[in-house]
Amino acid sequence: VQLQASGGGLVQAGGSLRLSCAGSGRVVSGSSMGWYRQAPGKQRELVATIGTSGSTNYAGSMKGRFTISRDNAKNTVYLQMNSLKPEDTAVYYCNVVVSNRAFFPWGQGTLVTVSS
Fold first, then answer.
1. CA angle 39, 14, 69 (to 5 degrees)
2. 34, 41, 39: which is closest to 5 by C-alpha?
3. pLDDT, tens digit, for every residue of 11-53?
4. In the chain, what is the greatest distance between 2 CA atoms, to the nearest angstrom?
5. Element housing 30 (H / E)
6. How many C-beta atoms surround the C-beta of residue 28 within 10 A?
């Protein structure tokens, strides 16, 4: 199974980015998916999850600013990030979620850097 996160980059505070996570086979379309992030010197944390039915959950600080979505036909999950803050700077990862936990080994992730 391969999950490839992309779309990161450098953005000014207040800006927006859209991350994508493409999976091999039907791994994305058939699974609950999550976005996670790891800031420098910090533990990896959950950002948002989306179930197979489209139900979503967000970590508190991301509510109202981030939107997770999925396109099963493209086997891809997205993370729209608005009103970005410097504290959102991190490597963002996607993964399959099983029993509220990330299931597969972590891939490379995509780096998001928010400048002040």
1. 70
2. 34
3. 999 999 999 999 988 888 889 999 999 999 999 999 999 999 9
4. 39
5. none
6. 25
